[in-house]
Amino acid sequence: MTELPICTLVSWKDIDRWADTLAQEVLSGSGAPETIVGLTRGGWVPSRLLADRLEVKHLAALRAQHWGVTATPNGNAEITEGLTTSVKGRKVLVVDDITDTGESLDLAMEHVRTKEPLTLESATLLHISHSTYVPTYYAEDVPKERWAWFVFPWNYWEDIRTLVAKARPDGKTPSGVRQLLRDRCRIEVPEEDVLRAFGPA
Ligand code: AMP
Known about the structure:
Elements: E1 7-9, H1 12-28, E2 35-40, H2 44-54, E3 58-69, E4 72-81, E5 91-99, H3 103-113, E6 119-128, E7 137-142, E8 149-151, H4 156-171, H5 174-185, H6 191-198
Parallel strand pairs: 1-8, 2-3, 2-5, 5-6, 6-7
Antiparallel strand pairs: 3-4
Helix pairs in contact: 1-2, 4-5, 4-6, 5-6
Bound molecules: adenosine monophosphate.
């Protein structure tokens, strides 16, 4: 039988709430940074939401790769595109969506540290308690026993397409696949979304 991870569907409402909490945490900590570095791709939307809330105009991207396909780690984490802007002497906050193994953020922090920022902190929306790296700030702590693959709204179609492809050999039909997603991933995916992920008949 195909491996299908337990998943959690994340709504924009959850994201909004976590972004508010995180912004508050940062403000009560060291205050707004001068530069936000968003890890792509997962940290891209969270970093923009945080930049908006913290009134930060300087936003930079850093590309880290770890989990190739939904819920499948791809060997070791790597920085595949470094920072292209100077952060020397600046107060920097590195942002990602979630710390799971924590390797991506750990590596990203190491990379940014070599660029000589004045201060360097990190922030994530979610932090899974088994992560080897603990971000300076996070909005919600997920106990490791409650590990799930979080289907973020910015990764929705990629995740649903992957899960549908994994469930297809056993589920066979769209309704069989939908039932497998319900039973094994514990998520309710609308029928039209399963059909769309199935592709043309
Ligand atoms: P990691 O290096 O394991 O901390 O995770 C690297 C990236 O993979 C994260 O920033 C997410 O974009 C993605 N990721 C890892 N674990 C999960 C998960 N449980 N749910 C959703 N996305 C995840």
